[in-house]
Design goal:
single chain; Rossmann fold; three-stranded antiparallel beta sheet; about 250 residues; Alpha-Beta Plaits; 9 helices; five-stranded parallel beta sheet; alpha/beta
């Protein structure tokens, strides 16, 4: 079984291709029921946040039981650096009495670029490497290969792993609802993986446990989600071209 987390489609597209190649099932961690995971081989596919494992993926690992002797592998999509993602994941799995056997970082398109500038012009050619990555992963998984070379530290992750770093990250990725643009369509509510958004009387309202996944920012059809007060251009919103908005809803 392949368990994935995806908000703008990169990890879902990769998990789907991998599942088809391995003839294995895929399921979103936001739709997983029960506490015992399935399969002699268990895959985890997710994006890198702040050079580390996303908080909800870490909680998923902590709250589930992995069958004894399972071959566990992971693919992490990222913009350029995977930071300490796989070291963190290895520590999380070891605390569960198992271990990470094989890992691969997959640099694709970073959805956080939108926080820094406008008129981005995403290079979709980066997605052409997906078949090559899937081929490499399939060979490793079928032959139960081991790879621990990516379980390193990360300066970026260390910088953010403290109150000051969190404050800087919260400021840089500060997203809010523009009341004048919001049409109460509810798409942001459906896309938020941690149920941090609800529809208020006049417009969508955000809670206080944002994951900074930017699903709402990229997915709002009315560009009503702002970053640090800046309205995002429709042309700067990103979703993997092979994935629909419906597939990303919680």
């Amino acid at each position: 079984m392949i368990y994935y987390f995806s908000t703008t489609g990169n990890s879902l597209a990769l998990a789907r291709e991998l599942g088809e190649a391995l003839d294995d099932k895929i399921i979103s961690i936001t739709r997983t029921s029960g506490t015992v995971l399935e399969g002699p081989a268990i895959g985890l596919v997710f994006p890198v946040y702040y050079g580390d494992v996303p908080a909800n993926v870490a909680e998923f690992v902590r709250s589930h039981d992995f069958p004894e002797g399972s071959y566990i592998y992971a693919l992490a999509t990222c913009g350029s650096s995977w930071g300490r993602t796989f070291r963190t994941l290895q520590n999380l799995l070891q605390a569960q009495g198992c271990r990470l056997s094989w890992s691969r970082a997959v640099p694709l398109i970073a959805n956080s670029t939108i926080c820094g500038r406008s008129h981005i012009g995403y290079d979709l050619h980066k997605l052409n490497k997906e078949p090559e990555v899937v081929k490499e992963a399939v060979e490793a998984i079928r032959n139960r290969k081991e790879n621990h070379s990516l379980e390193t530290g990360s300066l970026m992750a260390s910088l953010f792993d403290n109150p000051i770093g969190h404050a800087i990250g919260d400021w840089y990725m500060r997203i809010q609802v523009d009341p004048d643009r919001c049409k109460k369509c509810g798409e942001c509510v459906r896309l938020c993986p941690v149920e941090n958004i609800h529809l208020g009387e006049k417009y969508a309202v955000m809670g206080d446990h944002c994951l900074h996944c930017l699903a709402c920012l990229h997915g709002c059809p009315h560009q009503a989600i702002t970053v640090r007060g800046r309205v995002v251009l429709k042309e700067d919103q990103y979703r993997h071209p092979g994935v629909t908005a419906k597939e990303l809803e919680r």
